[in-house]
Amino acid sequence: MKTYGHIGGNPDTQNFGGYSASNVVHEHFIIKIPDGIPLDKAAPILCAGITLYDPLKYWGATEPGKHMSIGIIGVGGLGTMGIKLAKALGHRVVAISTSANKEAMAKEKGADAFVVSTDNGSMAAEAGKIDLIINTVSAKHELAHYLSLLRTNGTLVQLGLVPEPHTLSQLPLVFQRKSVGGSLIGGIKNTEEVLEFCA
Fold it and tell me: With 0-12 CB in 10 A as exposed, 13-18 as middle and 19+ as buried, what is 29?
């Protein structure tokens, strides 16, 4: 059991409930934060970090000595974490956004290339060059638009949840053996692994 000091707040509305002083959790669900990571830096790894690390691992990007070209659609909280992780794993990273305004930030985070998905010339420059694309966008858009960026045998992984259905033609999937997959978040083992990697 871990005991914490009193949690401050508005004394008129404060709830002195279960989490205000201590919490008992089964050891199976406890994750050790490595000494080299301050708690404020660990928090994003426990959410955005594992959400991006898990598909990177599942689709082979964490294998030692493997070099891939990895695209990250969306340069927000999840996307910037994906750029940093993919780059730290030793891969070529392509940030993909509808906005050219995100290029400087994406490159500062580690992107080697930047694609403006609303610009045909920018899309053509990376066509057929990416092994794995991780899509963090949760706004309405069409997945089919990004399939041209994938190499043969490439995979586009959905992380962003969009309630509207996407329209996908089978032709690029069939003729170039491209895949569309999905991922949610990782389990305890991979969370510990990404924390150690980040440390």
Answer: exposed
List pLDDT tens digits, range 116-144.
Answer: 999 999 999 999 999 999 999 999 999 99
Query: How many other C-beta atoms are found inside a 10 Å radius of the C-beta of residue 146?
Result: 21
CB of 158 closer than 8 Å to CB of 143? yes
Range with the poorest average pLDDT among 2-6, 102-106, 127-131: 2-6
Residue 56: exposure state from Cβ atoms within 10 A (0-12, 13-18, ≥19)? buried
Q: Does pTM surpass 0.85?
A: yes
What is the Cα–Cα distance from 4 to 170, expressed in whole angstroms? 55
Indicate the domain borders of the chain. 36-198
> For the domain 36-198, what is the CATH code?
3.40.50.720
